[in-house]
Amino acid sequence: MKLNLGTLADLPDGVRGPSYDRADLSAGIVHIGLGNFHRAHQAWYLHRLMDLGLAHDWAILGAGVRPADSAQRERLLAQDCLTTLIELDPSGKSAEVTGSMIGFIPIAADNAPLIAHMTEPAIRIVALTVTEGGYYQSSAGSFDADHPDVQHDVSNPATPMTAFGAIVAALGKRRAADVGPFTCQSCDNLQGNGEILHQAIVGLATLIDPDLAQWIDRNVTFPNAMVDCIVPATGPAELALALEFGVEDAAPVTHENFRQWVIEDNFCAGRPDWDKAGATFTNDVHAFETMKLRQLNAGHQIIATPGEMLSVDTIAGTMAHPLIQGLFRKILTEEIVPHVAAVPGMTPLDYVDLIERRFANREIRDTTRRVAFDGSSRHAGFLHPIIRDALAHDTPLDGLALIEALWARMCYGTREDGGEIAPNDPFWDSLATAAQAAKDTPQVWIDQRKFYGDLGQNARFADSFKGWLDLIWRDGTEVALQDYLKS
Question: Which residues form the Mannitol dehydrogenase C-terminal domain (predicted)?
């Protein structure tokens, strides 16, 4: 069955469909960045809320700001923006079709269609999943006003190239038309993601129109949130899996049998009652996101980096590798848990057990390559803050230093078996150059201030890093892991 509105009433047996009529929905949200994660997570929560007869005026309009987003737009519009979600539970797979997205805004270099839609009064939330590295942050965590994309938008505010420039332009038009602000909602894996989005929007607006920046600062809200669900990339296997359920979907999404969304209740123009579909509203998002980012997201880098070096293709495969599984357990319990507080219903040690089970789910074919992608953002965002805490509190950090040494070795571009590691980072060229120099002079790697700030100048961290990188180059990854596990 080819998926579209015309066939929605005839879904195969066992495939759950929407209980609501798509004709009854109207848009209230523009979401920029229509990747798999959004469709398995935020869009699913809204879909389930609509199933309850609620939030029918909060449907999603998809959007993108890159030329490559046009292909995704064509795929989704061809099936009326319906998505088949396939849950990969070790006890059995299940599928459902979601319909909370009702359109996809045309992609244009000047972002005029996106700006026009965000200016409409009915749009009350503009949400984003643009990846951790998409917020134009400097190595110090501030807004990078010198980035060429930012400078383009400052010089061309009516025809911006970034999502943030488009948002600033739309908010300017809304202020002029006196239709009120919308909430800007980050759904990316960043600690204080709402604060970081606020920094980007107000920072850019200040360079364009200081009066508008003040209006945004006073009137627009930027709720922090923690998001969590493991969602692999879609490839031939996922397309085939949808067909096994009897659905021909050009862009199906597979996901684990776990979701979590913890949201600060700070919406200037209203919001859906996502909590009625299982989300959590709280004034203490920080504790939840610290647990998740420092344990799950950091844990992903802890296993994916040696996994790449040892030619282990999948995340589940890394958890079946005794040395990598032992590395994960030791670093998490001894070096990360001491810097994480409990949250209601979950201790840090219980969370280690939870994510270990999730990572080991063999039904999830999540590749080490996908998880290791954009290490320049993910190491800096997930691991380096823990290293800084360990230095400040004089707690163990040798395992964390080992992961940084393995990352340096990985960026050299070859595995232990001699296989090539293809470029896998927006800064791959500079990382590869540093990795080549670090083979003989390890300090070169941690002197990359763009990623490490002043960490490379800390003798305790630097000495540990140098020792591990020398050992890895001399005796290999497995010996280094064995030495750490003996310590």
Answer: 284-469
User: Candidates 3.30.10.20, 1.10.1040.10, 3.100.10.20, 2.60.40.180; correct CATH number of 286-486?
Assistant: 1.10.1040.10
Angle made by CA atoms 264, 29, 277, in degrees to the nearest 5? 55
Region of 25 (left: φ > 0; alpha: ψ -120 to 50; beta: rest) is beta
Of residues 239 and 90, the one with the higher pLDDT is 239
- 35, 39, 43, 49: CA torsion to nearest 10: -170
**Residue 326 CB neighbour total at 10 angstroms:** 14
Three-state SS for 416?
Answer: coil
Q: 261: which strand partners? A: 227
Q: If you search the block for the tokens 């810097």, which residue do you land on?
A: 339
How far is it, in rounded angstroms, from Cα 97 to Cα 84? 4
What CA–CA distance (Å, rounded) separates 155 from 182? 24
pLDDT in tens, 125-138: 999 999 888 999 98
User: Cα–Cα distance between 46 and 467 in angstroms, integer?
Assistant: 50
Of the candidates 243, 314, 233, 316, the one whose C-alpha atom is nearest the C-alpha of residue 95 is 243
157 Cβ contact list (under 8 Å, min separation 6): 165, 168, 169, 172, 208, 209
Q: In what helix (H) or strand (E) does residue 32 lie, and over which residues does it extend?
A: strand 27-32
pTM: 0.84
For the record, the structure tokens of 48 come out as 């389930």
Q: What is the DSSP letter of 281?
A: E
Tens of pLDDT, residues 377-390: 999 999 999 999 99
Angle at CA of residue 399, ends 396 and 400, nearest 5°: 90
One-letter amino acid at 407 equals W
DSSP assignment of 309-358: HTT--BHHHHHTSHHHHHHHHHHIIIIIGGG---BTTB-HHHHHHHHHHH
